[in-house]
Amino acid sequence: MSENENDQKKLEIGKILRKAREEKGYTLDDLQQVTKIQKRYLIAIEDENFDELPGDFYVRAFIKQYANMVGLDGNELLQKYDDQLPKTKTEEYSDHLAQAVETRASQRKTVSGSVDKVRNYMPTIIIACVIVLVLAAIWLTAIARNHRDSSTRIDNSSVSVSGESRKKASASSKKKNTKQSKSKAIKLQEAPNRNDTSVTYTADQLNADTSLHIETSDRSWMQVRANNNTLLNRTLNNNEKTDLKIGRDTTSLVITIGNARATKMKIGNQNIDFTGNGRYQNTRNVTINFGKNQSSSSTSSQSSSEPNNQSSSQASQSNNATRPSNANNARPQTNASRASSQPAR
Fold this sequence. Notes:
Helices cover 59% and strands 16% of the residues. The protein has helices spanning 3-24, 28-35, 39-47, 56-69, 74-80, 91-184, 294-341; strands at residues 189-190, 198-203, 210-216, 220-226, 229-236, 241-246, 252-257, 263-267, 270-272, 285-290. β4 and β5 (229-236) form a beta hairpin. The radius of gyration is 68 Å and the shape is rod-shaped. Residues 151-199, 289-345 are annotated as: Disordered.
C-alpha cells in the first residue's frame, strides 16, 4: 500500500469521528465533559495529529472512547485502521506498564502496611473505647444522681416552705379569729334599777351579728323581741337548747322568761346572770340596750317596770285591806259566843 493510501485512511478516521459527533449533535465541549478527554486532544484526534497526544498508549484508548461515545464500534474501528495507528507494544508502552505495575504494587504494600498497623493497634483501640464508654457511663450516672438530689432538695424546700406558709396561715387565721372573738365579746353592764322581777343591761353597739343561746333544764315559756320584732314566742321543753341570731343593728333586746330557775342564757361569749347568782329567782323581764339608745331604752324599761311595781304594790295593799275586815268580822262572833256562854242573871 502506497503512502498516499495511508494518508487517506488517516484522514478518513478523523473525518469518520467528526461526522459521527456532528450527527449526534455533540460539540467538542460536550464530548470533553462526557469523556473527560481534554478538548485539544479531541481536536488532535479529529485532525489525526496523534503526536500531540501524551503517548502512543493513549492514541488507541482515546480513539476507542471517542468512537463509543458518538455511537460507533471502537474495537471495529481500531481493527480497521490498525496499520495506520501507533503500536501500543513499544518500549514506551512497556515502560509505562512497568511503572503502573510498580505503582500498584507499592500502593498495595502501603495499604497492607497500614492494615497491619491497624490490626496491631486494634486491641489498644478497643480497650481505649471501652474505657471511654465506662467513663461516660460514670459521668452520666453522676449527673443523674445530682439531678435527683437537686430535685429532692427542691421538693423538700417546697414542702418546708408550704409547711411554713401553712403554719403562718394558721397562725394568722388564729390571730384573726382571736381578734374577731375579742371584737365579738360583749360586755354587759347592769343598770342600777334592778328589782325582783326585771333587770336591764347596757352594752356597746354590736359590730357584727351575734347569737343568743338559751338552754332550759325544765319547761319554760320564752319570748324574745329585738327592736320590737318577735324572734321567739313559745314554750321550751326540758333540756332544750336554741340559738337566735341577733343582728348587728339591734339596739334593744327584750327577753321574757317564764321559769327563771330553769333557764340559762348567753349572748355571744358572755353569760347573762339575770338571777344574780340565784338571788332573784322570780326574774321575768331581761332588757339589753345596745349603743346610742341605751338611755332611752333604760328609761323606757324603767317606765315599763314602774307600772309593774305599782300593780304589785296595789295588789299587796288590797291584800292588806282585806285582812282587818276579816278580823272585825271575827270579833263580834267572839263577843256573841262569850255572851251566850255566860249565865243569865
